[in-house]
């Protein structure tokens, strides 16, 4: 049940819990519809608290009895929790509740997935398991007994005793309840071992359902690499005797860092060459690393309250991106991250859902697991490291781990260690955490008598609740090139810490060409009056791989905008530049493939609407098709040669090098198929022995509308594999023509294999529709209606996944009045549903404002 007016929670209202929890004992008697949870918790008054009210969170629990110090009590119960009279001093609270995992479709708390029991407690799911102070600053050791007939019974920490139909676990590290986990089922272990840097032997397992046991090896290698990397780079060692990972088919997010028992969406851990693409492998490696790294940044040091979410997420995303850069190609990783940041985070920051990296209010915390908290949160760490340098970053992190181990910390604590180590005042820098919106950085240049001057100005547009923006500290990595393309000034960091600031260089022989924001040194929108000549020059000469890519991307953008706005033909300079890139064997294939990619249609939309132009999704789509055809024609002779050169011999390996070759081959095939009617793609599909080649060929064929036979062949081959079927669902939507996308998605939702209760399948189908820019925004409005219909269906079943997908509507203000009206009508139709979840209603209310 939901209150009439959901409450807003404010950062400024933080107060500590009135009690400390000394230890927690839990017993689970598992049964699908009647699991009993018996708890014994020792409380003591918190000397730091001002008040003494004994309130425990608890939702949808059937309380059987409760006792304090062994005597029965009759607490008062509301839909949010339990209040009781308690004695002065320390006391023991006990209770027994009944819950129903089998009917728990929200996938929060204890639930069932494919016959196994599992839990998801972040952020506030533990309160659906038993009565407890479910807040991250309440930390305790846990002893857990699991009783059930299942061969595998798991919880956090180290195994204690076990016997027939029970197992006991003890977690010696105090933790908040959101890190609690329990898993039970008929699972198969993929075991391994790891010796830590101090010589401790750790047992490792990946637990999966029968049939998935041959998809664990890659994840296990990734785990061991992550453990080694965190020892080498951050000096962080694992701290339990055992580390378990479990793959679960029904999961709202990617994965969860529960102490010693990470729970993964099966799509983020299971991998095999036949069923997973190169991109899947890379993502799995990164997510395994991410969850493992949380053991220190998140678990040993956790968050005081949920406003501090970026403390663990921003830092852990930053750490996993460093890991991927070390394992693979640093520049390819940086370029991919920036593409993702611009696609998702900039859209969020520029619309009604904009919020600071550290928000100061929320209604439903689940709605704040966002690109801003995660990805921009990681960018902020990267900027901090750029500003203080690698050595001081390392010192500050050592101090952070030393000082705050065992704490529930804040962003203030985090910045404090940097201030102490460097002697800097980070007050202005802190605005990156407290102020929403993407700064626009404009730049003017002048050159006279060998003196060169760059003047930067920063401006951040208003965001909800923050009309005025103060200037932030922006680290600008800059290099200067002379007209021959030689570097006259190697990369240096300019600290832009005012609204406007100039930087000067003297003694230059001629006017240099600036390479600004190398490596994308700050998450800003660079506004520079420049021309295609300079862009082409940087594309050819810049020594910074990111800015080389960026120059190509800017060229593509200016070409496309000119086509969209003025009906111009594709720019010949761009086509020549891309042909040169394609032929440039000194560039690694992955980088070449990235350079050949075009800006996304939603990015073009944002650029147009920032310029005050109302974007037409269909016109944007057509311009992209026209440009791709022109590229194919211009590169006609070279494409087959590159395709042939990039064939990988021998057994499949997901490593960066062969994956990069395949990526470039696929890019060449995609362009070439616009001229050969899909002939070469059909051949690739027929001989493919791995998923990367198979699905990329299928995508190309579907786009050419010549892939019907392959599509049904693919279904017959893979209908037994849930994760591959997700691809089959998603691909048909993303490869559809704009006018067909909604209809195809609609048909797929009627397919017998469509299961809206499974978040992966739901996202594969309807998420693909929302991501198909011209299809979702097709003027028929069918995309909007279909998505709204399904959000209405899903909300009572799974509010979290519903609310996350509402973000598809966040860009409505960019579009023409007709589309705006259609979108708002759908938003209002959802909002008018009786008993709409707090999650969804908060999202739509914010989107509408
Ligand atoms: N904490 C998880 C992560 O980033 C994400 C998550 C949040 C998972 C909430 C489930 C629920 O790794
Ligand atoms: Zn995380």
Automatic annotation (TrEMBL):
It is an enzyme of class 3 (hydrolase). Residues 82-179 form the Aminopeptidase N-like N-terminal domain. Residues 534-847 form the Peptidase M1 alanyl aminopeptidase C-terminal domain. One of its GO terms (molecular function) is alanyl aminopeptidase activity. Residues 437-528 form the Peptidase M1 alanyl aminopeptidase Ig-like fold domain. Residues 218-432 form the Peptidase M1 membrane alanine aminopeptidase domain. Keywords: Aminopeptidase, Hydrolase, Metal-binding, Metalloprotease, Protease, Zinc. GO terms for biological process: proteolysis. Its EC number is 3.4.11.2. Belongs to the peptidase M1 family. This is Aminopeptidase N. The gene is pepN.
């Amino acid at each position: 049940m939901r209150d009439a007016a959901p409450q807003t929670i404010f950062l400024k209202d933080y107060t500590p819990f009135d009690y400390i929890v000394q230890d927690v004992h839990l017993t689970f008697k598992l049964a699908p519809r009647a699991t009993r949870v018996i708890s014994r918790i020792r409380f003591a008054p918190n000397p730091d608290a001002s008040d003494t009210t004994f309130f425990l969170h608890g939702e949808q629990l059937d309380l059987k009895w409760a006792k304090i110090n062994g005597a029965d009590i009759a607490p008062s119960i509301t839909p949010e929790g339990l209040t009781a009279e308690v004695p002065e001093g320390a006391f023991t609270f006990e209770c027994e509740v009944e819950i129903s995992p089998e009917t728990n479709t929200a996938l929060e708390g204890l639930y069932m997935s494919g016959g196994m029991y599992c839990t998801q407690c972040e952020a506030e799911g533990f309160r659906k398991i038993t009565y407890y102070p479910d807040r991250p600053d309440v930390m305790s050791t846990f002893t857990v007994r699991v009783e059930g007939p299942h061969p595998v019974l798991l919880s956090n920490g180290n195994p204690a005793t076990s016997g027939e139909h029970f197992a006991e676990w003890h977690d010696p590290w105090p933790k908040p309840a959101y890190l609690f986990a329990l898993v039970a089922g008929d699972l198969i272990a993929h075991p391994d071992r790891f010796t830590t840097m101090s010589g401790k032997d750790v047992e490792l397992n990946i637990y999966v359902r029968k049939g998935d046991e041959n998809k664990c090896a890659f994840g296990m290698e990734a785990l061991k690499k992550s453990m080694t990397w965190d020892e080498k780079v951050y000096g962080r060692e694992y701290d339990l005797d055992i580390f378990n990972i479990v793959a679960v088919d029904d999961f709202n997010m990617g994965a969860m860092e529960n102490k010693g028992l990470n729970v993964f969406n099966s799509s983020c851990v299971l991998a095999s060459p036949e069923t997973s693409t190169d991109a899947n492998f890379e993502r799995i490696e990164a997510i395994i690393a991410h969850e493992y790294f949380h053991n220190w940044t998140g678990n040993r040091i956790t968050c005081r309250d949920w406003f501090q979410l970026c403390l663990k997420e921003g830092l852990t995303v930053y750490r996993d991106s460093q890991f991927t850069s070390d394992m693979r190609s640093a520049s390819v990783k940086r370029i991919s991250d920036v593409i993702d940041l611009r696609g998702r985070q900039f859209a969020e920051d520029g619309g009604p859902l904009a919020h600071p990296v550290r928000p100061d209010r929320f209604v439903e915390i689940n709605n704040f697991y966002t690109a801003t908290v995660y990805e921009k949160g990681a960018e902020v760490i990267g900027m901090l490291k750029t500003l203080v340098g690698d050595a001081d970053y390392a010192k500050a992190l050592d101090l952070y781990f030393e000082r705050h181990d065992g704490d529930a910390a804040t962003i203030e604590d985090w910045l404090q260690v940097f201030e102490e180590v460097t002697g800097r005042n980070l007050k202005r820098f802190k605005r990156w955490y407290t102020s929403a919106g993407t700064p626009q950085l404009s730049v003017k240049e002048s050159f006279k008598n060998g003196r060169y001057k760059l003047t930067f100005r920063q401006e951040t547009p208003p965001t909800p609740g923050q009309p005025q923006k103060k200037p932030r500290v922006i680290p600008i990595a800059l290099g200067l090139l002379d007209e021959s393309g030689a570097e006259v000034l190697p990369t240096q960091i300019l600290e832009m810490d005012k609204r406007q600031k100039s930087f000067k260089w003297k003694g230059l022989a001629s006017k240099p060409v600036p390479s600004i924001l190398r490596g994308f040194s700050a998450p800003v929108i660079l506004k520079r009056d420049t021309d295609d000549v300079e862009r082409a020059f940087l594309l050819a000469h810049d020594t910074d791989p990111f800015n080389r890519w960026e120059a190509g991307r800017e060229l593509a953008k200016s070409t496309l905008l000119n086509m969209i706005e003025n009906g111009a033909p594709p720019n010949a300079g761009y086509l020549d530049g891309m042909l040169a890139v394609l032929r440039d064997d000194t560039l690694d294939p992955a980088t070449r493939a990235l350079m050949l990619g075009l800006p996304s249609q939603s990015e073009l939309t944002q650029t147009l609407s920032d310029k005050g132009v109302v974007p037409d999704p269909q016109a944007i789509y057509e311009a992209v098709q026209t440009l791709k055809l022109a590229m194919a024609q211009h590169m006609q002779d070279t494409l087959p040669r590159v395709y042939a050169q990039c064939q990988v011999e021998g057994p499949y390996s997901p490593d960066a090098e062969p994956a990069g070759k395949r990526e470039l081959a696929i890019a060449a095939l995609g362009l070439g198929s616009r001229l050969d009617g899909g002939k070469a793609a059909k051949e690739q599909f027929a001989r493919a022995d791995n998923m990367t080649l198979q699905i990329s060929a299928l995508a190309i064929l579907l786009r050419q509308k010549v892939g019907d036979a392959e599509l049904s062949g693919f279904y017959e081959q893979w209908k037994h594999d849930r994760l591959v079927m997700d691809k089959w669902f998603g691909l048909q939507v993303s490869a559809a023509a704009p006018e067909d996308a909604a209809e195809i998605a609609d048909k797929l939702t009627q397919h017998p294999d469509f299961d809206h209760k499974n978040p992966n399948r739901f996202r594969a189908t309807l998420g693909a529709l929302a991501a198909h820019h011209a299809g979702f925004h097709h003027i028929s409005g069918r995309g909007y209606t279909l998505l709204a219909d399904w959000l209405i269906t899903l909300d009572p079943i799974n509010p979290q996944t519903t609310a996350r997908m509402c973000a598809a509507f966040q860009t409505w203000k960019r579009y023409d009045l007709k589309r705006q009206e259609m979108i708002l009508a759908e938003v209002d139709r959802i909002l008018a549903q009786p008993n709409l979840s707090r999650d969804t209603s908060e999202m739509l209310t914010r989107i509408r404002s």
